Amino acid sequence: MSDEWLNLDETYIMPTYNRLPLAIERAEQNYLYDTHGKAYLDLFTGLAVNVLGHGHPRVKQALEAQGNTYLHISNYFVAPPAVQLAKRLIEATMPGKVFFANSGAEATEAAVKLVHKWRNAQDEEKNGIVVLSNSFHGRTLGTIRLTRQPGIYQDFPAVDMPVYETPAEDTASLARILEDEQPAAVLMEPVLGSGGIVPLSQTFMEQASALCKSHNVLFIMDEIQTGMGRTGELFAYQHTNVTPDIVLFAKGVGGGLPLGGLIAGNQVKDKFQPGDHGTTFGPSPLSAALGNAVLDALFEDGVLSSSRERAEKLQNGLQSLTKAYPSVVDGVRGLGMMLGMKLKLAPEKVKELRARILDRGILIDVTQQTILRFLPPLTLENAEIEHLLTVLEEELAALAGGLSDE
Q1: The CATH fold of domain 57-300
Q2: The dihedral of CA 39, 290, 258, 11: what is its sign?
Q3: In the chain, what's the furthest Cα-to-Cα distance?
Q4: Cβ atoms < 10 Å from Cβ of 77
Q5: What separation in angstroms does the CA of 223 have from each of 8, 35, 97, 188, 282?
């Protein structure tokens, strides 16, 4: 049956993704089950979406309760689930207001328009946005200019907006751009996700924030992948002393349903007026209800605090494998439940390794061709961590042995 679904997928759906050879029938807790009934430990989590795994009681309860109330009413009316979620996000981050959208790309598009509205209200002339090398901020025509990966932005039509690029951790380069080019905003991911799971240092983030303040430039944190507890705090910037002007969120916030948006700090919270921006499903009341359920689980049920201990166990285990197999592993980096293991292997060898791990019932993503990307649910159990480390050790040992025979 799995082959039939794969063939139908190839026939009727445009090939914008390199599929893994799996057709998923159901999901439960931290596992996906294919159409043959085989279980897979899910370390993809829908690319950082399913922070509570699958079928979490809080999410199921909210799904039923809101589903029995209403699914959509239009944003011309007040939806209590959305108001409640916005209030809780503000209280957990910084004073301001929330704009809801459907996805991370939409959140970024909204931020670009908000920067434009803020810029037009300033006396001094500023234009453009600074981004970090190898960053990822979306695939739409607006956000694609902000994404710094040639394989993604290719030669699609360009939106007429200056974009300046600077390497991560290069404070001097950022200072020169702010001084010479007079941009309106700086946008950065606290952990470069698609760019290889590269955490920014606290020092760099705080220096960047200070530079933005001194040049009257908006400081924007893209927390679309790092948010909702993935790094051990609700948002990754909260590991630092930084207070951004805008925070982008999506992925994990909707409990598995599409939801995104931004938190606008006091400097920009009132720059959007009726007619300036909008979206039909912004937000879906059902997605907002699930967002509240996610926050309930993270804070009231202690999932966020317990995930920090599991993340430390996972990271320590991966670091041990790095030391044990230096001929294969080039290092481990990341933050919380967002980790990358860089391999000293050719890309085709990494694909073969992932396929073997998949055969053994574990789903792991690959980014930048040679980095195993671990995005487990925050509900990952100790026994599941130990199983993962055992499988990885056996596979890495086999690879190391093969290299020594060559």
Answers
A1: Aspartate Aminotransferase; domain 2 (3.40.640)
A2: positive
A3: 69
A4: 8
A5: 35, 34, 16, 9, 18
Which residues make up the CATH 3.90.1150.10 domain(s) of the chain? 2-55+303-405
Query: CA nearest 236: which of 337, 135, 332?
Result: 337
Which pLDDT value is given to residue 265?
98
Residues with pLDDT less than 50, the chain: none
Distance (Å, rounded) from C-alpha 216 to C-alpha 185?
9
The answer to whether the beta carbons of residues 322 and 342 sit under 8 Å apart is: no
The span from the CA of 225 to the CA of 48, in Å, is 6
Characterize 43-73 residue by residue with b for buried, 16 or more Cβ atoms within 10 angstroms of its Cβ, and e for exposed.
bbbbebbbbbbbebebbeebbeebeeeeeee
The Cα–Cα gap between 75 and 399 comes to: 55
> How many Å apart are CA 377 and CA 53, to the nearest integer?
5
Sequence-ordered list of residues with C-beta below 8 angstroms from that of 351, at least 6 positions apart, any chain: 366
CATH superfamily of 2-55+303-405: Aspartate Aminotransferase, domain 1 (3.90.1150.10)
- Please give the pLDDT value at position 144: 65
Q: Kindly state the tokens that stand for 299.
A: 């804070």
Q: Where in the chain is the domain with CATH 3.40.640.10?
A: 57-300
Cα(224)–Cα(248) distance, rounded to whole angstroms? 6
Report the C-alpha gap between 311 and 338 in whole angstroms: 9
Tokens of 6: 């794969």
Beta carbons of 165 and 148 less than 8 angstroms apart: yes
